[in-house]
Design goal:
By secondary structure, the chain is mostly beta strands. The chain has 3 helices and 9 strands. It has helices at 3-6, 8-11, 101-108; strands at 15-32, 36-49, 55-57, 62-68, 72-83, 88-98, 119-127, 141-147, 151-159. Strands 1, 2, 3, 4, 5, 6, 7, 8 and 9 form a 9-stranded antiparallel β-sheet that branches.
């Protein structure tokens, strides 16, 4: 028997709202391949709003989504935040969204798939050299996502 089997405190996770992302895309390219549909979205701009982290996304980052024939969208994000006080924070995020055939058709038609219309979760990670945001370097997060070909929204929670 190990600690996780006997100690309920060790298996309890606490989540604290960290921030919300709202990102719009400058361009989206869809490529059908034998393996999957590839969706490549380039960031135009975005906002970051939270009690300890605020700012905006710099243009040029992106989201590389692989939409498999199994209805799973595999997210791969790389982006840069410019905080409200002038610091840079690099963000990576991977995740999964389980989409029904109806949701896939809505997504490809340009509609927004809300967080309650699919099971979409991602894990943003932050990296910065700014002393005032150094706490982000060790922060583990989980996000609930909303998807479209024009924008994405994240509600991000720090896991304690």
């Amino acid at each position: 028997m190990n600690l996780l089997d006997t100690d309920p405190v060790a298996t309890a996770l606490k989540a604290e709202h960290l921030c919300d992302f709202a990102i719009t895309f400058a361009s989206v390219r869809t490529i059908a391949t034998p393996a999957a549909t590839r969706i490549i979205a380039t960031i135009a701009q975005g906002t970051v709003e939270g009690p300890r982290l605020r700012g905006g996304f710099l243009a040029g980052g992106g989201d590389w989504i692989t939409l498999g024939t199994d209805g799973i969208a595999r997210m791969d994000v790389r982006a840069t935040i410019l905080t409200h006080d002038g610091e840079l924070v690099y963000v990576t995020s991977t995740g999964r969204a389980g989409l029904s055939d109806v949701a896939i058709n809505q997504l490809m038609a340009g509609e927004t798939i809300a967080w309650d219309q699919m099971h979409a979760r991602s894990a943003p990670l932050f990296e910065t050299g700014a002393d005032r945001y150094a706490w982000l370097n060790g922060t583990i997060t989980m996000a609930i996502n909303e998807l479209s070909l024009n924008h994405v929204n994240y509600r991000i929670y720090a896991i304690r």
